[in-house]
């Protein structure tokens, strides 16, 4: 059961000038399932992406990187039901074949198409089913199909994920809309399992790569469900430039800051949605680590807690077995950490200080916080001024069930 | 259900000259449970240990390190039901109080006593229950109480763990006997949750520390259940010197090699028993990585597979969803790994090569291996001659159940 998460109202996902989306059923895994999404971008759109660091990266990830370097992007094609990962040379050929077919249909170059796949690893991409379904996806293209696209890219997700923001840049209204999917194999290392955020803002191409990285680092790169980094993680930022604002060319200016803030808001909402909809989730957990020497060590400690099966099963049980949090902090790999100086809070309750349980702490206090559906663990390292926040969910019977039965 | 593991017959655990063991009930967590173990060592015994790298290391671990550096060790005292971890200064004081009481009873110095605790973290050690039970443990001391001790140090373990070997050194019969406990919070980083191996061989004190480290590195440091490194991991090697062999002084000689081999056999059997008896285990998995540049990168890849909740739930389901193994190899952190060069085998079946599924592989082959209770995953990295093996178990509903209900 997703934690405090419902699918966005279709009308709440605002169209972005220059972006049209179309959906179709290719019957990749199950007949009738809407599993194919085509996104058309207007001429002049700027596109940048960040991708998984997994060495076994999927064929479409490799092709995306090549195409982003080669040409202006005019279309994205996304299939679920098959990840086209662990598929070798033949996988690359099939990803390219899909791009060729889309290019022909859309009247752009093959390099102008970005392919994305998500689903089972190690099985050949069924291009014989995808190619015949492309015309239907093209015929479905519309500016207001964000909600349908959010649905069509889901795999084990229970709830479709999307968010929009409106802002003004240089007196012009600007829109930011994003969709994402992801529920399991979530521990992004660079980006996450398919996130797409588009804006109609105009922005200099030279700023796009840093912007997508900065947004990913505070959103998709701060979430984990099971600690497994996917082979297909891709986060794509699109700027169509159709809002009519004078193109943003300066990262120090207010316009850049405003756009980045809106993009981060959308991306963080999508990333949190992944943890809220994490496989088998019954609780949404925020792990906030502060007072570190740098952000990296804060993140290291936060991820150690967020990944620990022992911590996650205790939260599932609503059991304030908080020694497990201390153990995770201790093995996080911060080798000179002074455990006597740090403090641990569960919600607002001080749990641990001076290397042990706080004198003021009572089991009843911990048990009360544990009953909540959304819980913050706060760790104060007391050795610097850096901080980092990671979002995750608990570990339930249903996580095991979902992943034991994934292919059945 | 432990995988192909039963408790050792009491008679199969051979007495080690110079070692006596006594058990008592202190009622630490549950009344009547035999939860206190005393081990007496003859004068002249050599003792060395390796301990957890967890920064939140337990009070007894800190005290053990101090006492090992200070004095010849004459006694060990072990309690279950409480880890005395995350207990700050008061925890250290209580561990020392326990050592003082044992020292008084046994007629040795306080520094001659090593304390060990295992159980719940973040709760004060109930010395008021432990101290009154010590005389009963002392009265119970006997050379043939290894089996009872193996029972008494268990926590969530279902099966008691112990092993013995006999060998000859310099014409004298030598015995090696070890016991261990561990079932959850198992991902030792240096040693594991309470392992004790004793021999009556005579060996120069200068060789002990390297020997205990070498033995731990191929046994307890090669097992994981849930990826959580405990606060209390301790592996202790005892050499009483009572076998009458000329003391081993040379690590290059045949005697050292023979003793080390016997110690490794016992330690590996105990380490494997932890994975076989891993919380909720239904399958015992061996992850063997070979062809690496060095042992460290082989271990990194093996642990990435062994820790992955997605891999472990697939094994629980007997589902050859082997793309998850590729994904884990890919995110293991070997940044220049050539995924097209490596091979993956499930049992004897070639699963993946050339970056994808092997042409010869069939789902039926994979499904057949997955039915077995003991499964080897072999990864050939094809970039060097180093190798490493890690043992683990699958991830089942019962893991969640055991850890959700741990304190109830």
TrEMBL record, chains A, B:
Signal peptide (residue range): none
EC number: 2.3.1.35, 2.3.1.1
GO molecular function, one term: L-glutamate N-acetyltransferase activity, acting on acetyl-L-ornithine as donor
Pfam family, any one: ArgJ
Positions bearing the site annotation: Cleavage: 191-192
Keywords of this entry: Acyltransferase, Amino-acid biosynthesis, Arginine biosynthesis, Autocatalytic cleavage, Cytoplasm, Multifunctional enzyme, Transferase
Pathway: Amino-acid biosynthesis; L-arginine biosynthesis; N(2)-acetyl-L-ornithine from L-glutamate: step 1/4; Amino-acid biosynthesis; L-arginine biosynthesis; L-ornithine and N-acetyl-L-glutamate from L-glutamate and N(2)-acetyl-L-ornithine (cyclic): step 1/1
Residues binding substrate: 155, 181, 192, 279, 403, 408
Active site: residue positions: 192
Major location (coarse): cytoplasm
Gene3D superfamilies noted in UniProt: ArgJ beta chain, C-terminal domain (3.10.20.340), L-amino peptidase D-ALA esterase/amidase (3.60.70.12)
Catalytic reactions of this protein: N(2)-acetyl-L-ornithine + L-glutamate = N-acetyl-L-glutamate + L-ornithine; L-glutamate + acetyl-CoA = N-acetyl-L-glutamate + CoA + H(+)
Subcellular location: Cytoplasm
Site label Involved in the stabilization of negative charge on the oxyanion by the formation of the oxyanion hole, positions: 118-119
Enzyme class, broadest EC rank: transferase
Similarity field: Belongs to the ArgJ family.
Subunit structure: Heterotetramer of two alpha and two beta chains.
PANTHER family in alphabetical order: ARGININE BIOSYNTHESIS BIFUNCTIONAL PROTEIN ARGJ, ARGININE BIOSYNTHESIS BIFUNCTIONAL PROTEIN ARGJ, MITOCHONDRIAL
Role noted for this protein: Catalyzes two activities which are involved in the cyclic version of arginine biosynthesis: the synthesis of N-acetylglutamate from glutamate and acetyl-CoA as the acetyl donor, and of ornithine by transacetylation between N(2)-acetylornithine and glutamate.
NCBIfam families assigned to the protein according to its UniProt record, in alphabetical order: ArgJ, PRK05388.1
Name of the protein in its database record: Arginine biosynthesis bifunctional protein ArgJ
Organismal lineage: Bacteria, Pseudomonadati, Pseudomonadota, Betaproteobacteria, Nitrosomonadales
């Amino acid at each position: 059961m997703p934690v405090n998460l419902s699918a966005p109202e279709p009308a709440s996902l605002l169209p972005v000038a220059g972006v049209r989306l179309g959906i179709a059923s290719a019957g990749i895994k199950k007949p009738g399932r809407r599993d194919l999404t085509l996104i058309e971008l207007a001429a002049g759109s700027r596109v940048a992406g960040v991708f998984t660091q997994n060495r076994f990266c999927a064929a479409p990830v490799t092709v995306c990187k090549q195409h982003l370097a080669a040409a202006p992007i005019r279309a994205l094609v996304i299939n679920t039901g098959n990840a086209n990962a662990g598929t070798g040379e033949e996988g690359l050929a099939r990803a390219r074949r899909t791009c060729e077919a889309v290019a022909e249909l859309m009247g752009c170059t093959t390099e102008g198409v970005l392919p994305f796949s998500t689903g089972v690893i190690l099985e050949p991409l069924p291009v014989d089913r995808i190619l015949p379904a492309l015309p239907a996806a093209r015929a479905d293209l519309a500016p207001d199909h964000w909600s349908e696209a959010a649905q069509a890219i889901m795999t084990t997700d229970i709830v479709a994920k999307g968010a929009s923001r409106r802002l003004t840049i240089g007196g012009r209204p600007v829109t930011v809309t994003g969709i994402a999917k992801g529920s399991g194999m979530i521990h992004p290392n660079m980006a996450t399992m398919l996130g797409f955020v588009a804006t109609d803002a105009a922005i200099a191409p030279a700023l796009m790569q840093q912007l997508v990285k900065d947004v990913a680092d505070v959103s998709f790169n701060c979430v984990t469900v099971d600690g497994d980094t996917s082979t297909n993680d891709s986060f794509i930022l699109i700027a169509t430039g159709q809002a009519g604002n004078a193109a943003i060319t300066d990262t120090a200016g207010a316009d850049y800051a405003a756009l980045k803030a809106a993009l981060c808001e959308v991306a963080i909402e999508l990333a949190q949605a992944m943890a809220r909809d994490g496989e088998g989730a019954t609780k949404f957990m925020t792990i906030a680590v502060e007072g570190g020497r740098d952000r990296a060590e804060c993140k290291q400690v936060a991820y150690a807690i967020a990944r620990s099966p022992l911590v996650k099963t205790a939260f599932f049980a609503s059991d304030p077995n908080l020694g497990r949090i201390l153990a995770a902090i201790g093995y996080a790999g911060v080798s000179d950490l002074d455990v006597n100086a740090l403090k641990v809070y569960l919600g607002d309750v001080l749990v641990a200080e001076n290397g042990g349980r706080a004198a003021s702490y009572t089991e009843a206090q911990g048990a009360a916080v544990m009953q909540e559906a959304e819980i913050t663990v706060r760790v104060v390292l007391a050795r610097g001024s850096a901080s980092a926040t990671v979002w995750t969910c608990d570990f339930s019977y249903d996580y095991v069930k979902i992943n034991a039965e994934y292919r059945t």
